[in-house]
Every structure is written in structure tokens, then in C-alpha cells.
Amino acid sequence: MSENSSAFSRRRSSRYGIIDLEATQVTIIVAGEGEDQRHEGILADLSSNGVRVALGVCLEKDVPVQFHLSVPSVGLEFSCLAHPRWFQPRDAESWWVGCELTEVITDEMIDALARGGLLDRRRDPRYPVSYPAIVKWELGDKPLDVELVNYSKGGICVLSQEGSGLLSERVMLQVASYNRDATIPCRVMWQRKTEAGFVAGCSFTGAEDFIKLREIVAPVQNAPKVGATQPQETRKLHFFILILVFLLLAVKGIELLVPVRLAPQSESSKAMDGSSLSQLHESVGQAETRRDPT
Fold first, then answer.
1. Which of 25, 50, 151, 170 pairs as cysteine with 138 (C-beta 3.0–4.6 A)?
2. Residue in 164, 163, 186, 157 with CA at minimum distance from that of residue 173
3. Predicted TM-score (pTM) of this structure
4. How many CB atoms are closer than 10 A to CB 219?
5. Strands (E), 36-108
6. Alpha helices (H) in the chain, listed in sequence order
7. Rounded CA gap, 155 and 171, in Å?
8. 74 and 149 share a domain?
9. Is 67 contained in some domain?
10. Residue 76's domain spans which residues?
11. CA dihedral defined by 49, 55, 57, 59, rounded to 10 degrees?
12. 56 contacts 27 by C-beta, under 8 angstroms
């Protein structure tokens, strides 16, 4: 078994990907004979007992290092000893390094990263969609127009032009189609501002909420898009049919423009025409003889 495989097999807790890499600051300190060596890195994912970071150097396997994680946007500071367990080239100038931590990253820390929109805790596949909806905050007095960006069994992601600034607040999502509508309670887990607007991640509060939403959104999601690229086989079939129709029209046009040629004569017809011609010559000769007896 490879080092990477053995490392993954030793994982005892869920691993979460980091969404905003620039929001986290990782420092690895390696003790040296003279002075300590500091290496700045990028946090890619984490669990309660391990991290995966990108570094510009490859560390020594199982040699303890000091790990420090700083996330100013959520006020998180975490330090402990770490043991590098596996390595993998990231590109020509950096490495992926998997470290086992000697202290636990608590659920409270993970929740803080998730509420700050820095952590991806998705366990279910997300279904992308673009669907208009209305959100009403529990403590708000007016509904807000939003766009449903994606959804899963666990929750939804919406885009709006206004942010609430309140996390863990209960909201009501209203969606409708031509023959049905639904009001689905959700809880805001995180939100952040982007160039397109405010993006918020919300979790469902009931097991049946995903089914209610899917029944409304799925028909639109699965409908073919106008101008969408057709499969290659379908395009080939349409091209072949077009060429066939063009050839049929061309043949029909030629038949209309070119006169019909006479059918070839049979042998009996040719014989009859020959005898008639001989008789005609004899008649002409007799007539000339009568007119000029000399």
C-alpha cells in the first residue's frame, strides 16, 4: 500500500475542503540547529485530526513540526505539533503534504469556518440550477428576491443582491412552478459577498424538504436549453437528412428542366422504317420516269 493510501485509510473523521484558500494563513515551523525554518503554505482541506497543505518544500516524513493556522476573518487561531505522514508533488515548485495533528480541531472551529463561508461540508452531491425564488427572514419584514444556484439533500445555495448579516437564522424559501408551489424552512449556515452579489448556504430543517424542492425544480433543470449543443450523433443524422433532401430536390429539378428523350426503337420498328423508305424511293423513281420518257 502506498503512503497516500495508508494515510487515507487512517482517517478517523470527515474531511472538509477549503473554499476560500486566500482567507487562511498556514505556517509550518521546522526546528533547526541554528534557527527555526518558517514555511508559508496553503490549507487545502482539514479534518479534526489532520490537514493537507501546499508547501514550497518537501518535509521529512514523521519528523514533528509546528503547525499554525490563522483565519482572521472568523477570529480563529490554532497551533499544535504535527507529524508529516505523506507527500505528493503538486506542481514543479510545490508539494502536497499530509500532516497528522497532535491536538484536535474542535467541532466549534469547524462550525466557525463553515459559517464564514470558508469550509465545504457537503456530503451529498450538489445539483446546479438557476431558478427564481423568494426568501423571507424570520425576523425580517419584507421578502427578498433570490436565485437558487444549487441544491442537495442537505440544503441550498442562493444568490441575492442584499445580505442579511445574520447567521444561524431561520428563513423561509418560497418556490413556485406553473402548477404547484412550496414554502421550505431553512437555516442560514454561511454567507459571503462576491462580485455577483451575496451568496448564502442554507441547510434544510426537515428530511422531506429536498423532495419538495426537487419536484418543482427538477423539471426545469432537466429541460433542454434553447440553443444548447446537440450530441454529435444527432448532428450527424440531421446533416445526413439535409443532404438527402437536397439531392432529391436536385434530381426533381433536373427532370423538370431537361426534356424527356425518345425511347430507343426496337429491331422490328427499324425494319419497318427501312422498308417504308425503300417503297418511297421506288414511288419517286416511277413518277420521274413517267414525266421524262426519254
1. 170
2. 186
3. 0.46
4. 12
5. 37-46, 50-55, 65-71, 76-89, 95-101
6. 3-9, 107-115, 209-222, 232-257, 267-291
7. 12
8. no
9. yes
10. 3-115
11. 0
12. no
- Cβ contact 152:121 at 8 Å: no
Quick: pLDDT tens for 228-249.
344 455 556 667 788 888 788 8
User: Based on the number of CB atoms within 10 Å of its own CB, is 291 exposed (0-12), middle (13-18) or buried (19 or more)?
Assistant: exposed
CA distance 51 to 44: 8
Strand partners, 82: 65, 101
Residue reference for cell 487512517: 10
What phi, psi does 231 have (nearest 5°)? -60, 155
The three three-digit cell numbers of residue 290, written as one number:
413517267
Please give the tally of structural domains in the chain: 2
Q: Tell me the per-residue pLDDT of 172-187, one tens digit each, with 9 for 90 and over.
A: 999 988 888 899 999 8
- Per the domain annotation, does 234 fall within a domain? no
Chain length of the chain: 294
Q: Which three cell numbers stand for residue 41?
A: 503554505
